[in-house]
Design brief:
two-stranded antiparallel ribbon; seven-stranded mixed β-sheet; 7 helices; about 35% helix; binds S-adenosylmethionine
Length: about 230
């Protein structure tokens, strides 16, 4: 009798813990599925990138009505004609950038702030530029509210980079440029990497990874992609 009540007690405790965990993060299971199927199940192998993706709550970077779809491997609208990129592409770009703790990284195209948050799980020096002031403001507020205090966001034109904080160990551009912006190349450290989709607005676009060695840049094509354009303000 005593062992039965102990068993029932244990079962209630486990059940209570499961319910509490689900209430704290109702998307934990969906995120785990994304990790296994869309990241580890493909070619994302960098343990720091995998950890960062696991720790970043993508559902808190989209509007409430889209939260149910936050862990689908697809981009989602975030307003102003912009999108939050699909999780696989965010992970692939972060992996290609090879960011390590203590390094300084620039993101161009803050959008929702999700990619910046993923980077902030790896290093505490993240700078991000967004052209649309409303998106820059809401991303900065969201990142601060979620505790990503190490991300600095500014509204401005990413083609210019952020010279005050250059050079960067890595630059991740999350909108497609017709060609590689020369100022971003200039602001890359020797040995640094620039990950950027390049191509016309309606494709074909390729995701490129450039590595700097002195004044020489080697270029690797990672995969075909479809990004919103990196707008050139007049
Ligand atoms: C695919 S979305 C970025 C998604 C974002 N990284 C995220 O995690 O949500 C591309 C973003 O680039 C921004 N953008 C376009 N042209 C830009 C420019 N010249 N400078 C900075 N941001 C720009 C867009 O407004 C849009 O928010």
């Amino acid at each position: 009798m005593r062992s039965m009540s102990y068993g029932v007690g244990l079962m209630l405790f486990v059940l209570g813990s499961v319910v509490a965990a689900a209430a704290a993060d109702p998307y934990a299971a969906a995120r785990q599925l994304m990790m296994e199927k869309d990241l580890k199940g493909r070619d994302i192998t960098d343990v720091q990138v995998l950890k960062a993706m696991e720790l970043t709550p993508r559902h808190l970077f989209v509007s409430p009505e889209l939260q149910q779809r936050a862990y689908d491997d697809r981009p989602l609208p975030i307003g102003h004609g912009a999108t939050i990129s699909q999780p696989y592409i965010v992970a692939l770009m972060t992996q290609a950038a090879q960011v390590r703790p203590g390094q300084r990284v620039l993101e161009v195209g803050t959008g929702s702030g999700y990619q910046a948050a993923v980077l902030a799980h790896i290093t505490d020096e993240v700078y991000s530029i967004e052209l649309v002031p409303e998106l820059a403001r809401s991303a900065a507020e969201r990142l601060a509210r979620l505790g990503y205090k190490q991300v600095r966001v500014k509204a401005g034109d990413g083609y210019q980079g952020w010279p005050e904080f250059a050079p960067f160990d890595a630059i991740v551009v999350t909108a497609a440029a017709p060609e590689i912006p020369p100022r971003l190349k200039d602001q890359l450290k020797d040995g640094g990497r620039l990950v950027i989709p390049v191509g016309p607005v309606y494709g074909p676009q390729n995701l490129l990874c450039l590595t700097r060695k002195g004044d020489t840049f080697t270029e690797e094509i990672l995969c075909p992609v479809a990004f919103v354009p990196l707008v050139q303000p007049r």
